[in-house]
Amino acid sequence: MIAARRQAFNQAWTPARYERLMSILSAAAGVAPAFPVSETPCFFTRAFIDDLARTGEQLIRQLVDNHAASAAADQIVPERFTGPNEDPVPRFLQVDFGLVRTADGGIEPRLVELQAFASLYGLQRVLADAYRDAFALPSSLEIFLGGHNLASYEAAVGAAILGGHRPEEVVLMEIEPRWQKTWPDFAITEYIWGVRAVDASAVRREGRQLFYDRDGRLVPISRIYNRVIPDELDRKGIELPFDYRDELDVEWAGHPAWYFRISKFSIPWLRHPCVPRTWFLHKLDAVPEDRENYVLKPLFSFAGGGIIFAPTDADLAAIPEEERMNYILQERLSFEPVIETPHGPTQVEIRIMYVWTDELRPVLPLLRLGRGRMMGVDHNKGLRWVGASAAMIDPE
Q: What are the start-end ranges of the H helices in 262-396?
């Protein structure tokens, strides 16, 4: 948080510049984002952001290099989401951090969540550039991680998505993609990498081969850039034209099994000062008395669904014994509002986005601002200067 840059940005901010930002995004995606986009980016030092990226990598390595954790993670993948042709490592990983105030008055990061699932690799890059353009920010401010520039970033993400195949042989698979809030990212993904979003239910199977309709002709699918969230698939009761367990002539860029393996399930296995105290509910001998300091979370819900703050005895009793293995009890953290805005101090959640091809490497930060109880849209309705944002990194 660079105070001088924050003050200068707030003083120079105008509604016209924000309208310019939204115009750039709408033009890039062909549609305006269906979620709030913050009126401001955030300004960080290179040292701070790189330190977060190193911490995230340490956490990921703790999981993938821990045979006990890996074996346990294999066991929690629902059988219907297992199958052949998995990549040996998760191609896409996200590690989310919040910021807390320490006893000595300093600011430190704390883990919020981590997930082996793709994120907004297309939209987030465009959003960061749009802030620089719309608000005439200095060109010296950087946006990439891991030593990347624009060309190497697009090459690295493209390699993970395409896996050496021609773009028309690769699809971004989602449930009704055109109606997802993440559609702008899908549209930009096609523009940058040539990979088209297709509805998982519209795929056609013939023997071991999958096909999709591309401008009136059936095109074979060689690789799937997976954006189908298992929780949504189950919640909506969608039957796919194929089974993940089938022997198909298709590769996965993000097999659905990884969604479970590295997730909230992973947090109790981690040992790091940034990780809040976390227990599997079924392994707790006694629930702490100070319930206001804890949250109860289902392991495999998306976007904060099912989280209970300060769980009561009734909340806990409502969970059947056989389901308790699918919940964690976690220390509740009070995140510090460190971003000064005209609408008051605001919290920031910083996601470090990684790509793993030949090596695990951070590529880009993704930010969300909020003043509600959580960062999601439902907890920040009617608020200004909140929502999706981007990091402007000062190299000095």
A: 313-317
DSSP 8-state secondary structure symbol assigned to residue 134: H
For 90-118, write each residue's pLDDT tens digit: 999 999 999 998 888 889 999 999 999 99
User: CA of 385: how far to CAs of 146, 307, 315, 334, in Å?
Assistant: 29, 25, 34, 20
Instruction: Tally the residues of the chain.
Output: 396
| Cα three-residue angle 347-353-358, rounded to 5 degrees | 160
Give pLDDT, residue 26: 96
Alpha-carbon distance of 83 to 295, in angstroms, equals 33
pLDDT tens digits, residue range 235-246? 899 999 999 999
As a whole number, mean pLDDT of residues 278-304 equals 83
Q: Comparing C-alpha atoms, which of 338, 357, 340 is closest to residue 348?
A: 338
Listed in sequence order, the residues at least 6 apart from 357 whose beta carbon sits closer than 8 Å to its beta carbon are 91, 156, 159, 160
Tell me the three state secondary structure of residue 90.
coil
SS3 assignment, position 18? helix
Lowest mean pLDDT among 76-80, 230-234, 373-377: 373-377
Classified as helix, coil or strand, 95 is strand
Structure tokens at 130: 């749009």
